[in-house]
Amino acid sequence: MKRIHRRRGLALAASVAGLGLVLTACSSGDSGDGGTGGGDDNASADCEAYEQYGDLEGTEVTVYTSIVAPEDQPHIDSYKPFEDCTGATVVYEGSKEFEAQLLVRLEAGNPPDIAYIPQPGLLQTIVEDFPDQIVPASEGTVANVEEYYAESWKGYGTVDGTFYAAPLGANVKSFVWYSPAVFEENGYEIPETWDDLVALSDQIVEDHAAEGKKPWCAGIGSGDATGWPATDWLEDLVLRTAGGDVYDQWVNHEIPFNDPQIATALGEVGSILKNPDYVNGGLGDVSSIASTTFQDGGLPIVTNGLCFMHRQASFYAANFPEGTTVAEDGDVFAFYLPGPDTETRPLLGGGEFAAAFSDRPEVAAFQAFLASPEWNNAKAIATPGGGWVSANSGLDPENLTSEIDQLSATLLSDTSQEFRFDASDLMPAAVGAGAFWTEMTAWIANDKDDAAVLDAIEGAWPSS
């Protein structure tokens, strides 16, 4: 295992004050001097990239997403340059019941203008079931995606050869959050293999069980989407125990969901999440994982010290209390969830995709904006607390203000990593956003048998 060395973290590349300057500069207001003042010259220059969208004064674009507080405000703030430079108004709505309610709204003929879809499998379901409501990506969106994203990212937003949804943020899911100071105080090392991670967990039990402290804390509650964090655990372990080729076969249903290789991975997940000696530090017993929201799942690391580790994606940084320093020498940081050996380094990730349900000019323009370097950099600057990164090549790394985002960007660009997109997000919605979530919840909440869980998910796979 690798000994932790506390050292000075990387400097922040931007600040909230900097964001204010950027957004204010994009205002196209009149200074009263015929446009000759320096302020207006700067404003005009900063709005040049938005001239392609035309004058959208008085128009409105509605956005519906699964991203709720506290992660929603940076998104809302990131729209300000578009609003100031075009005159359009963007109305944001986040919901914990997004996946279910989006389908309800489509069924009722009341779609949002733009929806952030976190599952390509759900996108496919929408295209198949509501072909008259979803709109192919606008011309400007296509141009931006083809220029600024790898081809694979365009593929995730494509169904049956038609490109619908532009990639937004990306995230790294193969992270374990911890307190650098607590690890150093106890002489604990960053594990480099899965066996090292298990050994560390056992050591924490030996050292701290009498104090009521546990190696792990977790929460899988997420409204109608409860269970998804548990699916991420299984996906990471399939990559580590079976490998990328088997993972792909599993996603594509070339092997059944209850294949013995998937059962082995679930057993490994259970060795942590269903081990009463390991979980759920500061939150309750094993079953409390199901009733604890994913937002609260890792908080004991910094609030009461009753938990040492929490497996969750890079975006989890936004959920720690205000004032928490997320850095290698800060209050909390994350290390890579190790593989079976130091050479095997699979990486699980995900993202959201912006689909349009109206072909009005302002909606087409806003979808294109979301695929542009302008939005990606505005979003990075609007997220000074970290927890966001993108695969857009026009994103300036200097605008990634958090060390965890910088680490995520490094991992995403590391060709030695075996990257795979979140499996549940790629599977048909009935499985990936349905049975997979509910059965993993029952596995935790009701201690449902491994084989019964996998059989039930397999039974939910669409026959055609």
TrEMBL record:
First and last residue of the signal peptide: 1-27
Family the entry assigns: Belongs to the bacterial solute-binding protein 1 family.
Keyword Protein biosynthesis: no
Protein name: Extracellular solute-binding protein family 1
Organism: Cellulomonas flavigena (strain ATCC 482 / DSM 20109 / BCRC 11376 / JCM 18109 / NBRC 3775 / NCIMB 8073 / NRS 134)
Keyword Nucleotide-binding: no
Xref: InterPro entries: Bact_solute-bd_prot1 (IPR050490)
Keywords for the protein's UniProt record, in alphabetical order: Signal, Transport
SUPFAM superfamilies, per the entry: Periplasmic binding protein-like II
